[in-house]
Design a protein that fits this description.
Blueprint: H1 2-18, H2 23-49, H3 64-77, H4 80-88, H5 95-120, H6 142-169, H7 176-202, H8 215-241, H9 248-277, H10 285-291, H11 301-319, H12 321-325, H13 327-345, H14 369-397
């Protein structure tokens, strides 16, 4: 009964916290709300007219939605780079950032699920994904495994921080015997969610662009570069606009993680380019279309070369110690690296897998305004959720929110 009273008080105090703030905070939340409303309007059109209002066809059946889904799975998995040093290796320098990282993971997973719903056409078909009701096809279907690992990881990233914050809200220390086992599980689960997502593509023999053994490891490398890069940018904003103390050494340690992951990701990119173009076969046509164009079709050319240029520039900047320790330069490098990997793991991965088609026909894909509107709305939803979670968590961690007996 007492825990219920504490929970009720926590909810009440959290609502009070997220509905009050500075003028900049209210403008930020208003902007996100407006973008979400635009996204809902675009989605209502899609519900009414079907997926025909998108740029997807029977030739290219995965587009902007699945591109963002794939990228965001990596962002969610990257929270493990803070969870493992903090909870498992007991590195106190990561302690202030770990709850923020898990908040990013929760927001990213919610966006992942939203993009899946959007790509399926509407929530009315979700029953297909429910065990015992739909055609779940467990354990043969990789999509089934993806559903399980994503929802399981979401559960872990909600329950562990909630327990810690619930204890701190009462002015008590959290018990390691309660949350450390879950933290250990989440470390392996984070790797699993991205590997399983990679296996979804890697196991399709008819799509040679995806069917290579390096896809899974490269998914992890790019995830551990883009995810912590985003966390660094979020931490920079939080310590600029709140009283939440984040040490310079915390950001520097996360920057080292980003640097190593970005270097490995670049090496793997070079390896893939060598494999595709040193001794090309007809299976290399998707890569030729992506990097050089094919039969006069080159819609993705500016996207991929922009991504590679930004990727190389960011990795070079991060490699040099003096540049990486200059926070203005570091934030710029993290921003362009995040954009580069978003392009590379989005349009640069999903769309070329369908081009050319089984009979050699090239049908290019361009997202429509409806798709872009829905996508922006889902990203705004993720930012909205994270802002609410972060504002509450920061209030508890700095002692502003406490249970009044």
């Amino acid at each position: 009964m007492r825990r219920f009273k504490v929970l009720k008080s926590l909810i009440r105090d959290s609502l009070d916290t997220i509905t009050h703030g500075s003028r900049k905070y209210h403008l930020w939340m208003a902007a996100l709300t407006f973008i979400m409303l635009v996204g809902m309007y675009c989605y209502s059109i899609q519900l009414d007219q079907g997926l025909s209002v998108t740029g997807m066809t029977d030739k290219v059946s995965w587009g902007l939605y699945i591109s963002n889904f794939t990228f965001l799975v990596g962002v969610a998995a990257a929270a493990v780079m803070l969870v493992m040093p903090t909870y498992v290796l007991k590195d106190i320098d990561f302690k202030q950032a770990v709850l923020i990282g898990e908040g990013v993971a929760v927001a990213a997973l919610i966006m992942c699920l939203a993009f899946v719903i959007a790509d399926m056409g509407g929530p009315s078909v979700l029953w297909h994904m429910i065990p015992g009701i739909g055609v779940f096809n467990f354990p043969n279907s990789m999509l089934t495994w993806d559903v399980l690992v994503l929802n399981g990881y979401l559960f872990l990233n909600i329950t562990i921080p909630f327990y810690i914050l619930f204890r701190h809200y009462q002015g008590k220390k959290s018990k390691k015997s309660v949350y450390v086992p879950g933290a250990f599980i989440s470390v392996f689960w984070a790797v699993a969610i991205h590997l399983v997502t990679a296996f979804l593509y890697q196991g399709l023999q008819a799509r040679p662009f995806w069917n290579n053994a390096l896809l899974g490891p490269r998914f992890l490398a790019s995830a551990f570069a883009a995810g912590p890069a985003l966390i660094i940018l979020v931490l920079a904003i939080i310590r600029s606009y709140t009283t939440f103390k984040i040490e310079d050494k915390t950001i520097k340690k996360i920057a080292m993680v980003v640097t190593v992951a970005a270097q490995i990701n670049l090496i793997m990119l070079i390896s893939e380019l060598f494999k595709e173009f040193y001794a090309p076969t007809h299976h290399s046509e998707s890569a030729y279309y992506l990097f050089f164009g094919l039969d006069g079709k080159n819609a993705l050319l500016p996207w991929i070369w922009t991504a590679i240029s930004l990727n190389v520039l960011a990795t070079v900047i991060l490699t040099f110690h003096k540049l990486r320790n200059n926070f203005k330069v570091l934030f710029f490098a993290c921003f362009i690296l995040f954009i580069a990997i978003w392009i590379e793991k989005g349009f640069g991965l999903i769309v070329p897998g369908f081009i050319p088609g089984p009979y050699g026909k090239i049908a290019e894909y361009t997202p429509t305004g409806i798709e872009i509107g829905v996508t922006l709305g889902i990203w705004a939803l993720g930012a909205f959720v994270f802002t609410i979670l972060a504002k509450t968590a920061i209030g508890i961690e700095i002692g502003k929110l406490r249970y009044k007996k």
